Amino acid sequence: MATLVLDNGAYTAKIGYSQEKVSVIPNCQFRSKTSRLKTFTANQLDEIKDPSGLFYILPFQKGYLVNWDVQRKVWDHLFGKEMFKVEFADTSVVITEPYFNFTSIQESMNEILFEEYQFQSALRINAGSLSAHHYFHTKPSELCCLVVDSGFSFTHISPYCRSKKMKEGISRINVGGKLLTNHLKEIISYRQLHVMDETHVINQVKEDVCYVSQQFYKDMEIAQMKGEENAVMRDYVLPDFSSIKKGFCKPREEMVYNGKYKTGEQILRLANERFVVPEILFQPSDIGIQEMGIPEAIVHSIQSLPEEMQPHLYQNIILTGGNTLFPGFRERLEAELRSLVPAHLPVSVLLPANPICYSWEGGKLLAHSPDYDEMVVTREDYEENGHCICEEKFDI
Q: How many angstroms separate the CA atoms of 67 and 64, rounded?
């Protein structure tokens, strides 16, 4: 029987059969300024000629799946003919959901998977549990690990011991990629150019130019210098969607410090924005969010667990989710943890080659594991026992 693994994130869905490669697809619908009446779904984004002023219709709000109409349309598209051609009656599905998900959302998901799509069997699981499974698979001698998943809506910190999640140690910080993009939009709109409607473009700017500072105050001093001495400053060429399809950073040797560019390109000049925006992950209080940053939250999470587990957790910290791709993220996190953790405990932070698909790969491994059949709920089980069988089996 085929197994479809779907890491259903709030920004992208990572999907693929367990024998094949993963596809990363936007988990939302879009409307564009130019074609207001037409709605584009998931990877149809590529068909939009002019993605300026792109309007996102998201199934997730604040990290929870609330808009089922949009989610169904995205799933219909993914499962349909042009994408994965799913034969529901012969397919088992592994699907992720957030920690401490609401019962009403879980029940809706059971109904849609079993009653509407009629999958043969299903497993609902947290993305962090799949990441932990992946890690223990690659390092079978390790007892514990700590998954730091910094995604679109939240950053979750989840300790695992022998593949079992330690619920009392799970922490959540209400800072994710969406907040960072919105903050960057506000800064640029205030300082240079009104971009509050340009989520798509500014998200690209964030991914292309932002980085995590290793010495925040020193970088702040450099960012205030004039001309070529300002090593932080970058000029970003915005797309016009006719000749420039995708924005890019001007090479430093081509930057003009005084005067204008002759080419007529639209330029954003970015200095301290480049590191101030990702800094929110480490210091949410900078913009008035009264919460711990990631390093403090990790220490808080580990200290809430038995003492004998703590050294193992500090030594096996895995980073997943899109925000961990900011240059300097891993180094800064390791350095801050080092200063917070007792000197005799070793600290090790691992950034996988592809942190966005790490949990999907874990789902792929799980689908091939001998215990998989014990973990799923079959459609027969569901038809006989309803939601309670899912509650028993899925330890969410």
A: 9
